[in-house]
Amino acid sequence: MITTVTANPAIDRTIIVEDLKIGYVNRVIRSRVDAGGKGINVAKNLKNFGDDVIALGFIGPNAKYIIDCLEDEGIKTDFVKIKNETRTNIKISDISRMEVTDLNEYGPYVSEEEIELLKKSIFKYAKESKVLVLSGSLPQGVPKTFYKDIIREVKSGDLKIILDADKEALLYGIEEKPYMIKPNVQELEDVVGKKLESLEEVIEEGKKLKDSGIEIVAISMGGRGSVVITKEGIYRVMPVKVEVKGTVGAGDAFVAGFAHGIYKGLPIEETIKIAAALSTSVVMKEGTRAGTLEEVNILKDKIGIERIER
Ligand SMILES: Nc1ncnc2c1ncn2[C@@H]1O[C@H](COP(=O)(O)OP(=O)(O)OP(=O)(O)O)[C@@H](O)[C@H]1O
Ligand SMILES: O=P(O)(O)OC[C@@]1(O)O[C@H](CO)[C@@H](O)[C@@H]1O
Fold first, then answer.
1. What sections of the sequence does the record tag as coiled-coil (predicted)?
2. Distance (Å, rounded) from C-alpha 143 to C-alpha 157?
């Protein structure tokens, strides 16, 4: 089984506009609502691959919609029901600039008792899982060491932990050496505390993290693809040129591709291709949506992948 944890789910409201003008009245062409939050997006992608996945996290009284969406898709869920409301994140997609602006709320305040309930649940499901995905920001009241504490508690040879977080949650999490991390360049810059101007610098810093004991360091670079640093080698992955309709959740699809490959024990190059293809299929869609197996099968062979160092 694969367990995904979304401490800070979101009702994602995507608003499609043309030529957004800040400070003016803008007309909305169309809008849509999706169940969002990073771990939830990972779970949606994994389900489309037919993997056995369960989604955990905190859920507020206003967000039954999220549970219903996941259950409609056949995804198992076991969320901790909290007193305060789940956030709504606004995604403004400007189709003339092909640009998405994210307005993400901090999320609800979560109590100590609610945090303990989620921790217990994660510890329970981790015992039955091969892969554990810890993804996204932490809502208010949750200590920045949340992921670190979980990794320390559940880490074992049999469980592969993927951490996709930012800022302090990532910094602390890294201290416990998860199996894999997936920072984007900005997140990696925050970890190393400096601007990374060239691909060489990105690789250099990624290598240091890998050498510190993290097996896979996958650095995503948006429309420039990614660099994946593993013990098998360093891979430069080039994206496919497609019509981009929305980039929200591309990173989560990338993570899901790795979770799938690791779960199935696939070779690293095949895993990377699936991850890149899955993220490509997501950018071809409006809103926060997952990719499908059929889309990946079409896109996979178009992914350019080059081993640049052993
Ligand atoms: N404009 C694009 N064109 C083609 N592929 C893209 C584009 N943007 C993203 N991708 C694909 O998605 C992957 C992950 O994207 P990105 O680096 O934006 O993740 P992220 O910053 O974690 O995103 P998010 O937090 O919104 O999920 C990239 O490595 C690439 O394969
Ligand atoms: O505020 P966070 O937790 O960092 O990110 C939340 C979020 O932007 O991430 C997903 C896309 O990756 C969206 O579904 C969601 O709204």
1. none
2. 26
